[in-house]
């Protein structure tokens, strides 16, 4: 069974006002030594001081992974609470604020070169890593999961409010993140050599600093043997995070099976995938969404149903079928993070209520976390 690992970017907010606080450097002074991450989750700084990234170890069991996702959120929260803050799984801040860059040379260079995009963008995503056997296998996977990733984005949507504004989106993070030059989908690569040539070409333009700035929807990291799927908002409810992780692993398993069977990737152009992603970001899990198989207009329900049918055998083999089906039912009924945020706002028209409810949902699973999955 393939391993799964998750990185969640968490927003750090004042527990009284809901406004983000630039306290990550101070909070990390008390963080456990990264060497101790062999026994649990770890936390690291990110691009802005108002965020921390919680990282799990790789796991085969979704139950074990869920427990570590919850523990990572709790660890980040424990580090920031002495500073009057809470760690919350919001993909963008509902409250208006000005972000502060992390004082690190590479980030400083980005601030100088990329203007308002680097200064103003603070978004929190969820990155899922799935173990692979080789980079050739990894590229075969990238080529065969690309048309399904808009569905993953729709299910994760968790940023309807941003900087004091109702954006009209379910995931405004998508729009903000795509100010970066290399974000988004790609065409089919066909081989590891073609993928490597693509990466070299992007770096050689000198528009981006290095390979780390290749912010594709999914990519092959150079530091570890995984496929990294990066398209999702950080999920408000950690139960949604584990559903997405299980779906992504099943997509990877199915893609490898198709590759070995000689099944060609779906040839939907990247331009069509961009439109599907935009629609997924606009309406999330409860609106319209082009169908993953052919790209023509349809509903999110139909797209999710097609995804489940596509990965059904892999879900069963991994023991994740019931987890995913019950989780998808919940997301489609409550609208995921975006739906929870909008209901909190509708009660009194208060963005502080949105943040307060988000803090509650972020940490609601901490008691008996492994048993709470599903």
Describe it.
This protein has 15 helices and 9 strands. The chain is α+β, with helices and mostly antiparallel strands. The chain has one domain: Creatine Kinase, Chain A, domain 2, CATH 3.30.590.20. Strand 2 and strand 3 (51-55) form a beta hairpin. The chain is globular and about 55 Å long. The relative contact order is 0.16. The mean pLDDT is 95.
What's the domain count?
A: 1
Elements, N to C (H/E): EHEEHEHHEHHEEHHEEHHHHHHH
The CATH class label is Alpha Beta
Summing up helix and strand content along with how strands pair, one would put the structural category as alpha+beta
The number of distinct β-strands equals 9
Show unreliable segments.
Answer: none
* Tertiary shape: globular
Mean pLDDT: 95
Radius of gyration: 19 Å
Q: Which tags fit this structure?
A:
374 residues; alpha+beta; Creatine Kinase, Chain A, domain 2; 7-stranded antiparallel β-sheet; two-stranded antiparallel sheet; 15 helices; globular
């Amino acid at each position: 069974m393939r391993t799964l690992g998750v990185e969640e970017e968490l927003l750090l907010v004042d527990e009284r006002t809901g406004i983000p606080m630039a306290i990550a450097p101070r909070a990390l002074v008390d963080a456990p030594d990264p060497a101790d991450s062999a026994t649990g989750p770890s936390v690291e700084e990110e691009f802005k001081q108002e965020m921390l990234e919680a990282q799990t170890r790789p796991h085969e069991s979704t139950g074990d992974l869920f427990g570590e996702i919850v523990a990572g959120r709790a660890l980040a929260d424990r580090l920031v609470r002495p500073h009057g803050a809470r760690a919350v799984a919001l993909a963008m801040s509902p409250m208006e604020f000005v972000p502060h860059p992390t004082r690190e040379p590479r980030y400083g260079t980005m601030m100088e070169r990329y203007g308002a995009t680097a200064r103003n963008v603070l978004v929190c995503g969820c990155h899922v890593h799935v173990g692979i056997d080789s980079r050739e296998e990894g590229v075969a996977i990238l080529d065969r999961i690309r048309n399904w990733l808009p569905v993953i984005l729709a299910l994760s949507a968790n940023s309807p409010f941003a900087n004091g504004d109702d954006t009209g989106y379910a995931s405004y993070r998508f729009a903000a993140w795509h100010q970066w030059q290399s974000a988004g989908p790609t065409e089919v690569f066909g081989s590891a050599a073609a993928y490597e040539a693509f990466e070299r070409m992007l770096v050689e333009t000198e528009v981006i600093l290095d390979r780390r700035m290749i912010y594709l929807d999914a990519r092959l990291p150079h530091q570890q043997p995984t496929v990294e799927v990066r398209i999702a908002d950080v999920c408000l409810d950690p139960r949604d995070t584990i559903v997405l992780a299980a779906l992504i692993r099943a997509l990877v398993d199915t893609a490898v099976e198709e590759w070995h069977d000689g099944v060609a990737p779906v040839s939907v152009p990247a331009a069509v995938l961009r439109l599907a992603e935009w629609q997924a970001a606009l309406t999330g899990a409860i609106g319209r969404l082009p169908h993953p198989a052919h790209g023509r207009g349809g509903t999110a329900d139909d797209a999710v149903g097609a995804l489940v049918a596509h990965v059904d055998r892999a879900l069963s083999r991994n023991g994740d079928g019931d987890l995913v089906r019950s989780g998808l039912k919940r997301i489609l009924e409550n609208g995921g993070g975006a739906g929870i945020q909008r209901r909190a706002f509708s009660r009194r028209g208060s963005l502080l209520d949105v943040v307060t409810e988000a803090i509650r949902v972020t940490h609601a699973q901490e008691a008996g976390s492994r048993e709470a999955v599903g």
